[in-house]
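Progress note, sequence design subtask.
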C-alpha cells in the first residue's frame, strides 16, 4: 500500500509539472483575457511600510536597513486617511477598469490579515485589512481587482537571499529551507484567492532577483527552482478566470496569461528592462506618474496630462493596456497631482473613450506623429505630435472603401483621398490644450 501511495504521489507530482508545461487555459480564462484586452486602462497602487520613509519602495534594500530596525516601522503604520471608496471612485471616474494593488512587496510586509506571517497590517496601529476594504469596494463599484505579490523577500531567512541579487544588507545570517518559503507563498496566495472574492489577476514580481542582470541575450535560467508550475496551477485551480502575469522581463513562462513591460511600451526598451519581445498573450505596460512607484517625498517630476495621455494611446496602439501607478502618502491619502491627472483622464475618456476601449493595436506600429487603434469597421488615427507635416499618408490601409471620416471630438467631416490602398488626409495641430486629435475612419 505504501509503495502504491508513493507511486501515486510521484505520478501526481509529475503530471502537475507536465500540465503547466502544456497549459491549456480554460474557457473562462480565455474570456477573461479578451475582457482584459478590451479594458485597456488600469490603476497600480504601491503602498506599504516603505511609504512612511518617503524614499520609495526599495528603501530597505537601498539604505541597507537591518530587518530588526525595519520591522519597527509597523509600530508607526497608521494610514487613517485611507478611504477605499475614495480610491475606487477616483479610479472609476477616470475610466479605469481594474486596480492592481500591492499586497506584499519585497520588504515582506503583508497588507492583509494573513495567518502565515506576523509581519502584517493587523499588527500595526491601523489594525484594518486594507486588501479586504479595497477589494470589497471594487466589487461594489464594478471595478476589477488584481493583486501584486512579490516572490522576493528581504526579511525572511527561508528566502534564498544568498543566491539572490538584492537584500544583501538586511542583516540575515541564518539560511532557512527554500521549500518552506515556497509553502509559505502558496499559503498566502491561497488566502488572497479564497478570502477576497473574485480576483482578476495575480501580478508577480521579483523573479529576476534569482537571475543575471537585465541585458540583451541574457540567459533565462534561474539560480534556483521557483516551482512556478505548481504556483501557477494552484492559482488556476482556485480561480480559473484569474490571469497570471510575471514581471520577470523574459519570454512568458508556461502557465502565464498576460505579459507585462515595466516602464516601456511593448517593443521599446528605453529603461533597459524590456529586452523581451512582445508575445501573442495580452500585453500590459506599467508606468509611474512621476519617477517613483512608492511614495517619494522629493519626487516632483510629475508627468503632464499630455505625457500621461500619450502613454495610454501609444500602449493601446501597441495592443497593450496601460497600468498607471500611484504612490499614496504615509497617511493613506493620494497626492493631489495624481488626483488631478486621473480626473483629467476621466474627462478625456468621456469624449474619446471609444478610440481606446475595446480596440486592438493598429495595423501600423507607432509613428512619429502618433498611433493607430482599431476595432471592426473603424480605424482611429491619433495625432499626438506635429512634426511639420501638413498631410499624413497611411499606406496599405485596411479598408477598400471608406464610408465616413470625421473628428471624434465633434463629428466634423474631414477630407481624404484613398487610392491604391493609400490614404492621405490633412494633419491637425495638437498642443497641451488639445493633446490628441482623433480621426475616425469607418469602412470595410
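Output:
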Amino acid at each position: 500500500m505504501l509503495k502504491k501511495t508513493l507511486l501515486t504521489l510521484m505520478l501526481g507530482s509529475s503530471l502537475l509539472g507536465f500540465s503547466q508545461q502544456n497549459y491549456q487555459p480554460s474557457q473562462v480564462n480565455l474570456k477573461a483575457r479578451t475582457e482584459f484586452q478590451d479594458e485597456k486602462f488600469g490603476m497600480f497602487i504601491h503602498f506599504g511600510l516603505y511609504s512612511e520613509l518617503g524614499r520609495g519602495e526599495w528603501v530597505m534594500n537601498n539604505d541597507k536597513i537591518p530587518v530588526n530596525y525595519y520591522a519597527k516601522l509597523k509600530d508607526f503604520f497608521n494610514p487613517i486617511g485611507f478611504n477605499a471608496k475614495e480610491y475606487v471612485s477616483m479610479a472609476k471616474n477616470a475610466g479605469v477598469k481594474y486596480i492592481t494593488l500591492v499586497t506584499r512587496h519585497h520588504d515582506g510586509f503583508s497588507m492583509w490579515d494573513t495567518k502565515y506571517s506576523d509581519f502584517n497590517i493587523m499588527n500595526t496601529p491601523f489594525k484594518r485589512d486594507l486588501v479586504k476594504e479595497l477589494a470589497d469596494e471594487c466589487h461594489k463599484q464594478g471595478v476589477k481587482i488584481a493583486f501584486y505579490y512579490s516572490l522576493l523577500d528581504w526579511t525572511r531567512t527561508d528566502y534564498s537571499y544568498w543566491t539572490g541579487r538584492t537584500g544583501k544588507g538586511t542583516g540575515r545570517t541564518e539560511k532557512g529551507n527554500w521549500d518552506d518559503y515556497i509553502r509559505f507563498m502558496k499559503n498566502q496566495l491561497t488566502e488572497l484567492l479564497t478570502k477576497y472574492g473574485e480576483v482578476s489577476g495575480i501580478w508577480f514580481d521579483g523573479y529576476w532577483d534569482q537571475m543575471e542582470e537585465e541585458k540583451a541575450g541574457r540567459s533565462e535560467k534561474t539560480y534556483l527552482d521557483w516551482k512556478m508550475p505548481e504556483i501557477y496551477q494552484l492559482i488556476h485551480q482556485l480561480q480559473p478566470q484569474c490571469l497570471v502575469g510575471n514581471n520577470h522581463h523574459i519570454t512568458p513562462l508556461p502557465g502565464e496569461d498576460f505579459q507585462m513591460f515595466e516602464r516601456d511600451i511593448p517593443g521599446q526598451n528605453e529603461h533597459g528592462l524590456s529586452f523581451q519581445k512582445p508575445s501573442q498573450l495580452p500585453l500590459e505596460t506599467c508606468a509611474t506618474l512621476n519617477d517613483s512607484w512608492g511614495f517619494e517625498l522629493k519626487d516632483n517630476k510629475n508627468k503632464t496630462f499630455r505625457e500621461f495621455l500619450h502613454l495610454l494611446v501609444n500602449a493601446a496602439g501597441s495592443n497593450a493596456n496601460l497600468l498607471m501607478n500611484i504612490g499614496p502618502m504615509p497617511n493613506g491619502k493620494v497626492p493631489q497631482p495624481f488626483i488631478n491627472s486621473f480626473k483629467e483622464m476621466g474627462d478625456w475618456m468621456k469624449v474619446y473613450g471609444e478610440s481606446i476601449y475595446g480596440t486592438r493595436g493598429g495595423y501600423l506600429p507607432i509613428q512619429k506623429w502618433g498611433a493607430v487603434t482599431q476595432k471592426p469597421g473603424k480605424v482611429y488615427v491619433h495625432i499626438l505630435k506635429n512634426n511639420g507635416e501638413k498631410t499624413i499618408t497611411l499606406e496599405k490601409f485596411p479598408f477598400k472603401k471608406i464610408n465616413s471620416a470625421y473628428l471624434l471630438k465633434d463629428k466634423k467631416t474631414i477630407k481624404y483621398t484613398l487610392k491604391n490602398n493609400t490614404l492621405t488626409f490633412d494633419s491637425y495641430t495638437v498642443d497641451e490644450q488639445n493633446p490628441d486629435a482623433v480621426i475616425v475612419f469607418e469602412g470595410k
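The mean pLDDT is 95. Work on this subtask will continue into the next period as scheduled.
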